[in-house]
Design brief:
3-stranded antiparallel beta sheet, 5 helices, about 40% helix
């Protein structure tokens, strides 16, 4: 049934505010520095089945069995990055995920490889 303002109809489905998923928290644990390019990897997701975790936490554990950045997790869950940071800090605090800082740019690739990539893109 549509609401009185016509903003939501029957096809809209359930509507949950993103911060309802975090219990109203807007920041991750203070000691955890989560940049959008920080790498997340789950440790042992089988333990998580016995914990009282929400479906978003479980989905993070499923997604991060391969290392992903915070931005990739946010995109996969279709949730704002700040909400994902709070959820990630939860699974990290429980010991279910490792957080690694991003590799520095200088360590990622040498200049010759980057030049080859640029030249290849220009050739397209």
């Amino acid at each position: 049934m549509p609401d009185s303002y016509g903003w939501v109809d029957d096809e809209a489905g359930p509507f949950v505010r993103p911060y309802a998923l975090t219990g109203g928290r807007t920041r991750p644990d203070a000691e955890l520095d989560l940049d959008v390019v920080s790498i997340i990897e789950t440790t042992d997701a089988t333990v998580a089945r016995h914990m009282d975790l929400g479906p978003e936490h479980l989905e993070i554990l499923r997604l991060c069995h391969v290392p992903l950045s915070v931005a990739e997790v946010s995109s996969s869950l279709d949730l704002p990055v700040d909400v994902v940071r709070v959820l990630l800090s939860d699974v990290h605090r429980l010991g279910l995920a490792l957080v690694r800082p991003p590799a520095s740019i200088s360590r990622m690739h040498d200049a010759d490889l980057l030049k080859e990539v640029i030249n290849g893109l220009r050739a397209l």
